[in-house]
Amino acid sequence: xxxxxxxxxxxxGGIGDEILFLPSVISVKKQFPNAExxxxxxxxxxxxxxxxNIIDDLIFVDIKNKNKYFEILNLIFKARQKKxxxxxxxxxxxxxxxxxxxTGIKTKIGYNTGKLSQILLTHAVKLNKQLYAVKMYxxxxxxxxxxxxxxxxxxxxQKEKISNSILIHPGVSKMSIQKNCIKTIPSKTxxxxxxxxxxxxxxxxxxxxxxxxxxxxxxxxxxxxxNFENLYGTTKNLSELAQMIxxxxxxxxxDSAPLHIAVSLGxxxxxxxGPTNDKVLIPASDSVIAIKxxxxxxxxxxxxxxxxxxxxxxxCLKISAQKIAQTVLTK
Length: 331
Description:
The chain is α/β, with parallel strands linked by helices. The chain has twelve helices and twelve strands. 34% of the residues lie in helices and 17% in strands. Helix 7 crosses helix 8 (213-222).
């Protein structure tokens, strides 16, 4: 497959998914440095362009739109129009292989979802959902390259470290909240964490994006100490958030996109995990620590693996502020 000049990647999901998908794109770009890279994604994830210079063009596909079939047809039309040499698509939906076939692109790579994918795709790759997501996605590009990119990589200007600092990003995406996918601890618990860390003499900094407005307001209503810095609303885009994260000695967050930004930057990161699977969302590394409840729930992890919404009593998120703060202070 020498001389690929135009390559289309397709990955639908949130910004966190796009960050986890980036290493696959990076490896292919290293193999074909002169290739033009286009990424088809959901409009909500367009901020990925703020974090990398490896993507030349974006195609927006609003699959959450009620006119999703029109959106998919538009993607097929644009793919045929642009005459790509290869297309690589994530996603385990059985219809992906049909979409790729209809693009008319010569080299078509996707996950093996059955006999149809084996017939329609050039390469039907085994989907292993038990791997760290970066590795799971990276299996898709093995037919094109032996180059391996193990962690997300982003292109932002890193800032000087703030001594003794702990940056806290408590929120999750508004879409996950609307879908009743509860992945973070209550705001009152976050407030107690800030109180404890500040009392230990740490320089605590609070941040968040537009989706976190309600969460931040509740934290500010419940926090007792004044010895912390509230920088909520001061970052205008993901690039500025990444720069802020790079300046922290430690980063404490929920299972959300900022987690993957911190991993990309090599910042010591502590992540609250409840119903989701930390094994597939963070790398095996001393630099990234999962904080979980001692709940003995035999269904955990359940979100995405066994259910699409959170249960009525998520005991997996009943993690004490003391345990969270102690983990950040000592590990």
